[in-house]
Amino acid sequence: MRTPKQIVLVAAFSFIVFFASAQQDPMYSMYMFNGLAINPAYAGSRERPAVLALYRHQWTGLEGAPKTAILTAHAPLLNNKIAIGGSLCSDNISIFNVITLNFDYAYRIHFKKNRGKLSFGMNVTVNNYRARWNELSLNDAIDPAFLSSDNSVISPNFGAGVYYYTDRFYAGVSVPHFLNMSLSDNFEHEATDLTARQWKHYFYTMGAVFNIGKNVKFKPSFLFKHVQNAPFEADLNAGFLFKEALWVGAGYRTGDAMNFITEYIFAKGVRIGYAYDYTLTELNDYSSGSHEIMIGYEFIRKETYLTPRRMSYF
Which candidate, 3, 86, 229, 269, has a CA 20 to 30 Å from the CA of 214? Predict the structure, then answer.
């Protein structure tokens, strides 16, 4: 017979699988500005030290809906041949929380002919999975299945990626974690035939920038995502850059949502962005959509302010 805790676990994982197409890793509409979150080979590609903070509130209005906060930092080193980076992410859904600490390393090969770079990256991650059972409202306040305040599991992993880019084009493939790690007995219930695991994810990205006017550029991009036992998912986006400062764009996530994205790039290295997702599933009856806020800073040399600087479009 299933205990109440097992029933809650099954319900929670069913919620994740059904509504998020079994996509366990955090979802970002502004993936094109947040490349380090999905590919360690992206490290150093801004060609200067850069930090970025992003917060996503998915399906606002729906109790227990996902909330994600991530902080990333990366920089090129040693004549731009190598780069390092790292990130700290907190991903919440209902009573479940995953905190991920990530360390990235990339080795870059330079091509003089087209000023392109081919980057090979790897990462090491430490994940802390936690279930806060004491936050549940119970009909039976003394149910022994909920006497423990929480369950917590620490799980290490590693991943890798390849990223090629020029001033006007990029393409990448990555597997942020190779191991399908079990979350141990704390999250494993044989009676329900359900084993909680961190499944391997595959990410494929590509984008480009084209001049279409004196002060206007066009930027299409896409992100393909795949994880075991889930449909192949695609994010298709297109945006316009006005006067090297304002990005405005829109996109479509297959079977899930349409989104509006904007970013403004200030002269002294500050970037701010916002994305709104309009849900296309039945969740639209219960949610007002998803919101994503981003702020970034790049450490630009003072002399760069005096002359037109090289624009980093990705």
Answer: 269
